[in-house]
């Protein structure tokens, strides 16, 4: 397994997820801003006005002068008084077009701490209604509070007056006792003393009645009218749009990471590194055309340079022969499973480096072989039934070809028609018993090879080149393939990223329509082109 692997939980991964899922962020942000703008446009218009009221201190003990005025105000009582049925009903009656329920819904009140100031706000459908409602509620609240204070004072004065009247009657009775008793007698002295006490109580009651009568019972004063402060018209539309945008971005972040976790497909090189198949040695088009040129040819040569720098798995002294197994993560139903075009391109590039090159195909279908034979101009060798990559005697169902376009290139095809087990058996025997392998050998396995074939190829090859397809290969499948290689002590050279979609076979045929076809018969009298002679359909 490659030593350099990306940290799956590093900060860089979060940035990569956001970069490749930016469309999710953009869509969610646009939806959030759109919803915020739509709400700002469609919501009912509202306005809020406020009035400031100073509360007069009206306590049950108006003679207590040792406490601060704010300490004699019960904030919760005052707030509930503002919202009382009496105040709301009076205000609704004066406003006419507003019901008590509407006033109570739009009314808010609070008493400032350590102060006797009450702030009440009223929300209505327009600025005029909000200002008029706040001012009217403040007036009715003070009027109702003053009426309660006057009633409380009147009740207290009434009780003290009754007590005063009773004491006066007692004073008259004591005066009569003094007049009827002998002058200087003990009875006259007691009556005189009682009358003095009653006179003192009467004076105290009169003093209290005077103090009660002096209490301010107006309830309070309006410090600032709602019209002076003005009204605010709800939340600004820009604030609603910004709030929707922020909410959309947060939702987009959650959906982006959830989408990335549920997707499970390879999206970049870091996903390949995390699975252990990295580094990515080349990025090639899915539909490779032979012969390759330019950047594609350079990328293929780079793969061989990586392999040449590593010692062979079976020759620690650095032998000249190199076997590269190309293992694909595609499933059995994928038409490009096994990547025979990639294997052919790698073999052609190896042939250009000097020496002979061999392409071993296991489990590749006849249809793919015909297309490959036309591209490479293949014809069967004299020993067409040679069953090994080196030309040694093999089992039936194995066909060897030589390219007329690249004479140093040889192709050995293990026909999958005999079944997966038979193809694997012939493949293992051919690789294990080869006597004179080519300088560079590329082994490609089709879907028929399965896990057992991949493990066998990884064990016998010098290195494994993993084929991944951006946007199609599952990360779990890539990690499973690497696990199979490591299980047999194989070495992962790196990965090739194939991008794009393949063209149908008929498009390949159209591209080859004007190409010359070699019709010279082979040494055994067989036509040179697999497509014209259908050699892949020949059986022993």
Helicity range: 40-55%
Q: Which parts are unreliable, with pLDDT below 50 for 5 consecutive residues or more?
A: 1-6, 384-396, 503-540
Strand order of the largest sheet: 6-14-13-7-12-8-11-10-9
What shape does the CA trace take? rod-shaped
- The averaged pLDDT comes out at 76
Secondary-structure-based class equals alpha/beta
Q: What is the distance, rounded to the nearest whole angstrom, between the alpha carbons of the first and last residues? A: 42 Å
| Largest sheet entry | 9 strands, mixed
Radius of gyration: 50 Å
The strand count comes to 14
Number of helices: 18
Strand content: 15-25%
Which features characterize this protein?
single chain; 540 residues; alpha/beta; nine-stranded mixed beta sheet; 18 helices; 16% strand; disordered N terminus; disordered C terminus
């Amino acid at each position: 397994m490659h030593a350099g692997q990306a940290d799956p939980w590093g900060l860089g991964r979060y940035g990569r997820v956001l970069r490749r899922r930016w469309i999710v962020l953009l869509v969610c942000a646009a939806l959030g801003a759109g919803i915020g703008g739509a709400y700002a446009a469609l919501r009912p218009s509202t306005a809020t006005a406020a009035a400031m009221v100073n509360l007069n201190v009206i306590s049950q003990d108006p003679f207590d002068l040792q406490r601060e005025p704010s300490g004699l105000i019960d904030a919760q009582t005052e707030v509930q008084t503002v919202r009382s049925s009496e105040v709301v009903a009076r205000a609704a009656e004066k406003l006419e077009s507003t019901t008590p329920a509407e006033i109570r819904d739009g009314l808010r009140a609070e008493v400032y701490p350590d102060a006797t100031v009450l702030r009440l706000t009223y929300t209505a459908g327009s600025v005029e209604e909000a200002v008029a409602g706040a001012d009217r509620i403040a007036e009715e609240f003070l009027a109702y509070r003053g009426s309660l204070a006057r009633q409380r004072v009147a009740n207290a004065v009434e009780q003290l007056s009754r007590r005063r009247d009773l004491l006066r009657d007692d004073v008259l009775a004591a005066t009569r006792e003094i007049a009827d008793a002998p002058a200087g007698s003990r009875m006259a002295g007691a009556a005189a003393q009682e009358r003095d006490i009653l006179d003192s109580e009467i004076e105290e009651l009169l003093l209290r009645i005077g103090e009660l009568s002096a209490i301010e019972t107006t309830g309070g004063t309006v410090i600032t009218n709602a019209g002076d402060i003005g009204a605010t018209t709800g939340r600004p539309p820009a604030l609603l749009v910004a709030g929707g945008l922020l909410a959309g971005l947060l939702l987009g972040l959650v959906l982006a990471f959830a989408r990335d976790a549920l997707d499970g497909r390879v999206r970049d090189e870091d996903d390949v590194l995390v699975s252990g198949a990295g580094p990515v040695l080349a990025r090639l088009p899915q539909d490779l055309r032979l012969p390759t040129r330019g950047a594609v040819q350079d990328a293929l040569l780079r793969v061989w340079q990586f392999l040449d720098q590593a010692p062979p798995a079976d020759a620690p002294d650095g032998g000249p022969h190199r076997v590269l197994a190309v293992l694909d993560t595609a499933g059995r139903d994928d038409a490009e499973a096994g990547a025979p075009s990639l294997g052919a391109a790698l073999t052609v590039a190896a042939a250009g480096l000097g020496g002979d090159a061999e392409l071993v195909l296991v489990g590749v279908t006849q249809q793919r072989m015909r297309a490959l034979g036309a591209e490479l101009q293949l014809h069967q060798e004299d020993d067409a039934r040679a069953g090994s990559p080196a030309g040694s005697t093999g089992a039936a169902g194995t066909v060897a070809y030589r390219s007329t376009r690249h004479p140093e290139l040889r192709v050995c095809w293990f026909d999958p028609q005999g079944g997966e087990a038979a193809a694997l058996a012939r493949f293992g025997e051919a690789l294990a018993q080869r006597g004179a392998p080519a300088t560079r050998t590329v082994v490609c396995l089709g879907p028929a090879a399965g896990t057992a074939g991949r493990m066998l190829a990884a064990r016998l090859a010098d290195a494994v080149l993993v084929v991944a397809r951006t946007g199609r290969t599952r990360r779990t499948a890539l990690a499973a393939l690497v696990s199979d290689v490591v299980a047999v002590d194989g070495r992962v050279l790196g990965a090739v990223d194939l991008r794009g979609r393949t063209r149908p076979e008929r498009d390949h045929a159209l591209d080859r329509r004007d190409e010359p076809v070699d019709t010279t018969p082979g040494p055994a009298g067989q036509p040179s082109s697999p497509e014209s002679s259908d050699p892949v359909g020949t059986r022993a």
